[in-house]
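dumping the sequnces here before i forget
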Amino acid sequence: MKELIRELNQQQREAVLYFDSPLLILAGAGSGKTRVITYKIAYMIEELGFEPERILAVTFTNKAANEMKERLEGLLKREVPVWVMTFHSFCVRLLRAHSVRLGYKPNFVIFDSDDKKRLIKEIIKDLNLDPDLYSPSTIASVISNVKNGTYSLDSMNLYYENIGQIFELYNKRLKESNALDFDDLLICGRDLLAQEDLKRRYSDYFRYVLIDEYQDTNRIQYEIALSLTKEKGNICVVGDEDQCIYTWRGANIENILSFERDFPNAKVIKLEKNYRCSGTILKAANAVIANNRKRKGKTLFTENPDGEPIRLFAAESDVEESQFISSTIKQFLKKGVKPSDIAVFYRTNAQSRILEDALRKEGIAYQIVGGVKFYERKEIKDVIAYLRVALFDSDVVSLLRILNVPKRGLGDAAEKKLKEILKVEKGNLKALEKLAESVSSARQRKAVEDLIEIIRAIREKIPTLPPYDLIKFITTVSGYKEYLQKEYREDWESRYENIEELGNTIQDFAEREKLEGEELYVEFLSTITLSSDQDEMEEGEKVTLMTVHASKGLEFPVVFIAGLEEGIFPHVRSLDSADGVEEERRLFYVAVTRAKKLLSLSYAKRRRFFGTYKSSQKSRFLDEIPSHLIKEVKKKERSGQPALQKTSSTSDKKPKIVFHKKFGKGVVKRVEGSGDNAKVTAFFANYGEKTVIMKFLKVLA
DNA sequence: GTGGTCAATGTTTTT
DNA sequence: CATTGACCAC
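..and the predicted 3d for all of it:
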C-alpha cells in the first residue's frame, strides 16, 4: 500500500491521505480521480482499519460502481464488501428496509420512463386534456423537474394550466400501484433519512462517504449525502464543474459551491495534471472550455507529448462523413490498432444508424452502447409486464399493457370498462373478475377468464420453476410466441431470441445473487430498471459507438466525433439560452477529453433529417480550437480511394449474387425498389428464400 | 367493438 | 423512416 501511494503525484497523494475535514476534490479530466478514490478507500481499510462494509462510495452508473469494486479488490487481493453503488440503488436499498414508513409495501416496483409515459398518457386521457398541449414526454420531464426541485409547480402552471391536477393524479396513481419513479426513489431516500432515528442509525453506521461525479448530483442527492455526514463531516466528493452535463436532469453545479458553504472547514484539492490526453488534445480541450463563463477555473496541463494533430474532415453529406469514418477506421485496423481502442461519438442517438450502415459495409465489428436499451425493447417489456402483473397485483400500467397483447379481442371499450372498475376495485385480479362479468359478449368473457388463468398460472410457477423456464412458460401460456410469429413475420426469430436472452440473464442473476422465487424477480426488476447504457457495454474486439453522454468516464486511444454542426452539436434545443450553449460546450469538452492519442472531428454540409436533406453549418466549437492544432483532411488524400461511389453498394444494374452476414451467399430472384432500401429476395443455400433490405447485403456479382 | 390498413407526424441527452 | 393515430370493413 505504502509503495502504491508513492507512485501518486503530490496532489493525488494529499487527496488520498487527507481525513482531517470534509474534502472536495476538483479533478480535471484524465487526472486520475478514479485512482485516487480507489486508493483512498484501500488506504482507509488497510492502514486506518475501517470496516469495508461501513464505507459508502456513490458512483454515477452501476458500471462505474462495478469497476471501482473490481479495482479495489484487485488492489487488496480479496473481496471487499464496501457499499459501492449509485444514489438510486442506495435509495432502493434503504426503501426495501423501510418503505412501510412512507406507505409503500417493500416489494415496490420502479417505473421506468416508458411506464411513466404510459401512465401520464392515461391521465391526460382521463382528464380530457388536449394531448397536443400535453404531450406525455413533455409532461414527464416537467413532473421530473418539479419533483427534483428545478422548477416549482406554480411556475409550471403558467405554461401548463392543468399541471397541478396531472401532478397530483400521477402521484396518486403511482402510489396506488405501489410504484416509484426515478425521482421518487431519491425523494423517498431523502425523506427516510430525514427521520431522526434513521438518520442517526445510518450516519452512525457509515464511517465515511465518498461521492464520485459530484458535479452531476442534484439537490436531493446532495441532501441525502448531507444527512449522512453533516455532523461528522466524514465526506469526500470528487467532481469537475467543466464536466457537468446533466443539468437538464436536475444536476446542479451549485452543489460544488454549497459544499463549501455547508462544510465551512472543507479542504479543497485540485487535480490539474492530466495523464490521459496528448498535449494537442488537451490544448484543444482547454481552449474550448475557456469560452465558458460559469466555471471555477482550472487549467489542466500534461507532460504527455503533443502527438498527432487533430484531424478535421468536412464532408459534403452525412453519408460521406460516415464513409470517411469507416474507411479511416479500416486503415487504423490494418495498421494494427485494436477495434476496442476506437470509439465513435455523436450527439443524438438518431445519428448512429448511418454510422452503423457504413461500418457494416466495411465489415467492421462494432457495438452500440445505448440507443434502445435491451430492456426497453417491446418484446422484452411485454414479457416483463406479464411477470410484473403476476408479481404485483397493484401494477395497473403493466396490466393495461398486456390486456390485449397478444390480441384477445379486448380492445378500447374493454379497456375503458376495466379502468372504470379499477376506480373502485383495487387489485388487478379482482378487477379482471369483475370485468369478466360486465363484458358484453361470451367471447370476451372467455378472453378475460383466460387472461386471469394465465396470470394465476404464472404466479403459481414463480416459486418453483427455474427462471429460464419461467420466461419460456410465460411466452407459451400467454400465446406470445405465436403473436410474435404472426405480427413480425420477418424478424420474429430475433425477437424471440431476445426473450430467451432475458431468461438466461435472469438465470445468471439468480445464481450470482443466490436468490430465488418472488424475491429474485423483484430484485431483478429493480436492477434492470436502474441499469444504465454503459452497463450493457461488452468487452471484446469491437469498435464502440455511443452518444457523448454515454462516454462520460470512459477513455479511448482513438476517438471520432461526428456531426459537429450547428443545430446538432450544439443541439438546436440548447441555442436559445447561454446556459444551454455552455452545457453543450461542456459536453464537447467531455467528448474531446475522452481521447488519449488521436482525435478526429467531422461535420457534414448536408444532412438528411426525416427524409429530406437540410444544409448545415459547421459547429462553433470547431472555431474555438486553435487552428494550428488541427490538420484538415482533404478528400483526395483520403484512403487513396477514388472519389466516393455515389450510391454505395447498389449499382444501377441488378445484382445477381449477394452476400449476407448471417445467411451467406444467395442467388437473387427479385429486386423491388432501388438504392439501399431495395427489397431483395434471394435464395440462400442453408436458409432458403429470404427477403432482405439491400443495405444488409454485399453485391458479389 | 375489434382489428387491419393507411396516413400523418415527430428526434436531445438518461438514472 | 418508423412509430403512432385515425379510419373503415368485418
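The two ends of chain A are 64 Å apart (CA to CA).
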